[in-house]
Backbone:
């Protein structure tokens, strides 16, 4: 352990915790705690969306994907833009009718309280499991730096993030996201040039070697109407179609992202933040994929054995090869991505628990101060739950693909029922619930009984949910809703 690098990392951890905790004085109501008082500028929300979308999985997982494969992951990112347009047109107008705190209030308005609880409960399970994998990813980095066991590494980051999230609420989440995003992008850019400087021949040599190895391939237009086509994770069609459905679900139906959109001053600013975030996210993924390609050339030229699994390649190289000071900055950048995502998850889990379960089921009127106290207690509770899931998540093969795979299994049902809510009027609550359960069952079968790639899960689940609910509406014959 190099004292200067350790000092930089420690200074970052203390500094960002102090910075986030400074926002505690503005937390007086649930609107302040969960929506930041709806006073945040669009550009800060855009950066916060990117931070939540990125996470440690991106920072340490994406270089591993291009190290073992090519640039095909960017095809998925292209579908992200189409999804943002769909959300802006279909969902944002509904979210800004009245004052909403969670995405699932829209489901009660359209269908009823049971579907609200079902969709909110699905989110809690989904986000807890996926975030548990992300928190485990943090332990890979902290363990490399401090040499601590994974449980201790997880505990350190969870406690520090929990402290400022507990104190500062959504305002702390968004503004620490902005700071941390700037830090991890800067760290990645610096590390890219340092790694490139260690390769004789520089960028021209990287391009030559990577091109001959197929590492620079971006598009895969192969199409065949058979199962083999559906097993390729990163193809143009899986990227555009699968990426669109995946992001429409994650950014349009999951509280982690919708909460940021609801925190904007207006619908127009929310739309601007959503679309601007795609430009940043495309540049980010391009940056980390490029780092993976450069690392491939480095290990090929030197003949060194790369660390395994692939998720360790980037953080291990940084710590062992980058100059003193630069290594500390780069590791701090990775931790920044981890903490920004974890803080967002804690706040969104707490907001869904309070707003979609506790408050509607409360038998007596409670003051804002009482509900704010409940929100903070549930922030602590979810911190403990995520710690436990992270410990159980040890041993996953690829943290990035594991996180996306878990999310994709439930996103299909969520997106399907949201599309039913905004595109139909004849489907009632019982039919929607039947469709949602059917979609989840089919996806579980696809996941565990077929070789179909995760990029197709959301599309499949959405179609099954939508079609089943539509057909069920003719049998159940519920009164159409005007919600």
Residues:
């Amino acid at each position: 352990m190099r004292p200067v690098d350790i000092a930089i990392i420690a200074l970052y951890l203390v500094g960002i915790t102090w910075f986030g905790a400074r926002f505690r004085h503005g937390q007086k109501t649930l609107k302040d705690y969960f929506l930041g008082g709806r006073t945040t500028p669009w550009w800060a929300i855009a950066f916060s969306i990117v931070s939540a979308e990125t996470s440690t999985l991106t920072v340490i997982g994406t270089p591993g994907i291009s190290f073992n494969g090519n640039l095909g992951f960017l095809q998925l990112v292209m579908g992200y833009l189409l999804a943002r347009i769909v959300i802006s047109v279909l969902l944002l107008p509904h979210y800004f009718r009245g004052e909403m705190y969670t995405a699932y209030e829209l489901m009660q308005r359209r269908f009823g309280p049971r579907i609200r609880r079902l969709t909110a409960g699905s989110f809690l399970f989904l986000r807890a499991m996926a975030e548990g994998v992300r928190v485990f990813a943090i332990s890979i980095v902290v363990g490399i730096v401090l040499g601590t066991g994974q449980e201790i590494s997880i505990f350190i980051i969870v406690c520090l993030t929990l402290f400022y999230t507990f104190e500062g609420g959504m305002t702390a989440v968004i503004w620490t996201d902005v700071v941390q995003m700037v830090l991890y992008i800067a760290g990645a850019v610096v590390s890219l040039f340092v790694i490139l400087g260690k390769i004789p021949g520089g960028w021209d040599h990287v391009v030559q070697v990577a091109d001959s190895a197929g590492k620079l391939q971006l598009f895969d237009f192969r199409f065949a109407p058979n199962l083999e086509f559906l097993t390729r994770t990163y193809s143009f069609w899986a990227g555009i179609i699968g990426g669109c459905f995946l992001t429409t679900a994650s950014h349009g139906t999951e509280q982690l992202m919708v909460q940021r959109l609801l925190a904007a001053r207006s619908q127009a600013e929310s739309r601007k933040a959503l679309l601007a975030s795609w430009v940043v996210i495309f540049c980010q993924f391009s940056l980390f994929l490029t780092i993976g390609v450069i690392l491939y050339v480095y290990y090929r030229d030197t003949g060194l054995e790369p660390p395994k699994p692939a998720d360790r390649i980037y953080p291990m190289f940084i710590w062992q090869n980058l100059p003193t000071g630069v290594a500390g900055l780069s590791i701090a950048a990775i931790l920044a991505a981890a903490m920004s995502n974890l803080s967002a998850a804690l706040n969104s889990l707490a907001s869904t628990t309070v707003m979609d379960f506790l408050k509607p089921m409360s038998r007596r009127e409670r003051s804002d101060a009482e509900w704010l106290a409940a929100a903070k207690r549930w922030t602590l509770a979810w911190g403990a739950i995520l710690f436990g899931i992270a410990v159980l998540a040890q041993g996953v093969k690829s943290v990035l693909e594991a996180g996306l795979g878990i999310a994709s299994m439930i996103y299909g049902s969520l997106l399907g029922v949201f599309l039913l809510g905004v595109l139909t009027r004849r489907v009632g609550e019982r039919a929607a619930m039947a469709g949602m359960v059917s979609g989840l069952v089919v996806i579980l079968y696809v996941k565990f009984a077929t070789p179909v790639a995760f990029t197709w899960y959301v599309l499949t689940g959405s179609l099954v949910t939508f079609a089943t609910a539509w057909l069920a509406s003719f049998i159940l014959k519920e009164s159409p809703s005007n919600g």
Observations:
- Residues 3-362+369-395 form a domain with the Sodium/glucose cotransporter fold (CATH 1.20.1730.10).
